[in-house]
Amino acid sequence: MTVEEETPVLEGVLRLESLDADLEASRSDLVEHLRRPRGRVAQSRRLVEAALGDGRAHYGLNTGFGALKSERIEAADVERLQVNLLRSHACGVGAPVPRPITRRMLALKAHALGLGYSGASLEVVAGLLALLDADVIPVVPQQGSLGASGDLAPLAHLALVLIGEGTAWGNDGPVPASVALEAAGLTPVALGAKDGLALINGTQFMLAYAVEVVQRARRLAVTADIVAAMTLEARLGSARPFDARVAALRPHPGHAQTAETVRRLLEGSEIGPSHADCQRVQDPYSIRCAPQVHGASRDAIAYASSSVERELNSVTDNPLVFAARSPSEVDLEGEPDIVSAGNFHGQPLALALDTASMAIAEWASISERRTYLLIDGSDGLPPFLVERSGVQSGFMIPQYVAASLVSENKTLCHPACVDSIPSSRGQEDHVSMGAWGARKALRVVENAERVLAIEALCAAQALEFRRPLRSSPALEAVHRAIRERVSHRAEDTVFDADLEAATDLVQSGALIDAAQAVVGPLP
């Protein structure tokens, strides 16, 4: 091919670390891409239109869907078929998906179609970009996807707004999509062959949730190490289990990362040397085995993150439209073709999300045990971390809350992906249930953030009973960050505001920022 003949492709790889910026760049690239007559979106669309006239049956173009795959559709009904597909599949139930996650779904769907293997019309892809530009965000119910033939129900709700039906978010709550489009100066998009199917096939619902889960989990990995180091100091624990030589003999990457993090956080402490010659032989497992437990969760999240990032750059539609081959696509040999396959199946994400849930739950589980150690009245700390326990209940009930959240996570960690209920008269005889796995994984994250926030509050309180000794510069910086939001509690108080403030510190990464301002980037 000459430069003029070469098929332009959508450039750019989506990365978890910079996803928002990457999606914004992808939108800009896609707008330009749609203007190019030899762009892959245009090429694949032309192949779809040509296929309609070849007299053969092409799934989803001129046939029914699922168990109705053998039903041929007359040419006059092809466009109606696509609209009916959205209407019939938009039957989700339950509370709406949080608006930021829905916006991410919309951006991911536009990006996936823009890769040019779906055969969607230029008008549909441009319409999705217009919704993003105008911040017209569909209202999407959370429940109803089996995570197999794509996230059919939630994506149908997402796509309905494009044709002026369904519901979108207004300034004061949900409004009819037609009202939202008119207010934004947009007109409904007319669907052609394959458009409806391209819009609802795909894993963008569970993927949007998965991004949220793994991004927050990666922040929790460092936060868990920071809070564990604070508890170690407050409990006069030993740093020897975090020795690099120990990690080298069992070379799991997460183990080494946690051990390194804690060693760096403890540098310069006055507390550690003060009890170097004590008679204690060992600390409880929740302190001594933190590298092994935290590290295993780190490794599990690394696996989940790699699966999610791979999915961000995947085409999960069906059928797939191979219109033309770029010279860079040496692995996509062959003539133009339309292939019906199973890239919509959510199992890669479902397994990753269930794994992530268990990994995150373990950070919370071991954290709650360390919280218990802080309030049990041993190692020179007062019971429940107040001087007049009895009159004062102190931090007794925050530990109850942590225990309840940990127990809730145990139930939520039952894997969704081991379940499968056949649907569509047996045509879809194995499903991933990844959509439920995604939703409950986010609940596990939220619970874990609160459990670690409770440990952080207790550890900050406990460190103050070691004065005048000071912990390390890094951990004292973390302590100050907590005290800027939550005061020392010498008397009983209503804890809900304290817990919310501490949870915000965990979720925002403020504790990580405080530590890294002293010791530099942590693994």
Structure described in brief:
The protein is built from 20 helices and 6 strands.
Structure classification: mainly alpha
Helix content: 40-55%
What is the end-to-end distance? Answer: 46 Å
Q: Name the beta content range.
A: under 5%
Mean pLDDT: 90
Multimerization state: single chain
Order of helices and strands: HHHEHHEHEEHHHHHHHHEEHHHHHH
Largest sheet: 2 strands, antiparallel
Please count the helical segments: 20
Radius of gyration: 27 Å
- How many strands in all? 6
| Major sheet strand order | 1-2
Shape: elongated
- Regions with little confidence, pLDDT below 50 for 5+ residues: 1-10, 327-331
What does it look like?
This protein has 523 residues and is mainly alpha-helical. It has 20 helices and 6 strands. It has helices spanning 19-34, 40-51, 78-89, 99-114, 122-134, 152-160, 177-183, 195-200, 204-234, 244-248, 253-266, 271-274, 285-288, 290-312, 347-375, 396-412, 434-463, 473-483, 496-508, 510-519, and strands at residues 93-96, 141-143, 167-170, 173-176, 320-322, 337-339. The strands form 3 sheets. The chain has a two-stranded antiparallel ribbon with strand order 1-2. A hairpin with a 2-residue loop joins strand 3 (167-170) and strand 4. Helix 1 (19-34) packs across helix 4 and helix 4 (99-114) runs antiparallel to helix 5 (122-134). The chain is elongated, with a radius of gyration of 27 Å. It starts with 18 loop residues before the first helix and ends with a helix.
